[in-house]
Amino acid sequence: MSEGAGPLDWCVLVPRLVHETKVWIMEAMEWIDQPLSARELAKISGGRKHIGHFEHHLLCLVKAGAIRRVSRTPVRGAHENHYFLTKAVRYST
């Protein structure tokens, strides 16, 4: 058998591919059940992660189709984007 033979060990693979911040963002949006910005996520996290860290992961989640930008508000010469879960990631009832 070659080194790559055998079934994938998903319990090992998934934590290496899915970043904990992305999971945290998704859980925060589900729990709070309203759109959130990178600034709000940084505040909710108690300042453990910088706004830029959340902005990066929010954009990755948008590209993956898990969340979408729902509003863009001018704030002190910049814009604050708010994101929320897409229907694609919610269970159908």
List its salient traits.
93 residues; 4 helices; two-stranded antiparallel sheet; Arc Repressor Mutant, subunit A; alpha+beta; 45% helix
If you had to describe this structure to a student in words, what would you say it looks like?
The protein has one domain: Orthogonal Bundle (Arc Repressor Mutant, subunit A). It is 45% helix and 18% strand. It has helices at residues 10-17, 20-32, 38-44, 51-64; strands at 67-75, 78-85. Helix 3 (38-44) packs across helix 4 (51-64). The longest helix is centred in the middle third of the chain and has 14 residues, at 51-64. The relative contact order is 0.16. The model has no long low-confidence stretch (mean pLDDT 89).
Overall number of structural domains:
1
Give the overall form: globular
Fraction of residues in H or I helices: 40-55%
Strand order of the largest sheet: 1-2
Q: Can you say what the CATH homologous superfamily is? A: Winged helix-like DNA-binding domain superfamily/Winged helix DNA-binding domain
**Tally of DSSP helical segments:** 4
- Label the structural class: alpha+beta
Mean pLDDT: 89
What is the terminal-to-terminal distance? 45 Å
Strand content: 15-25%
Our Rg estimate from Cα atoms comes to 16 Å
- The total of beta strands comes to 2
CATH secondary-structure class: Mainly Alpha
Unreliable spans are none
CATH-level-2 architecture: Orthogonal Bundle
The CATH topology corresponds to: Arc Repressor Mutant, subunit A
| Largest beta-sheet details | 2 strands, antiparallel
List SSEs in N-to-C order: HHHHEE
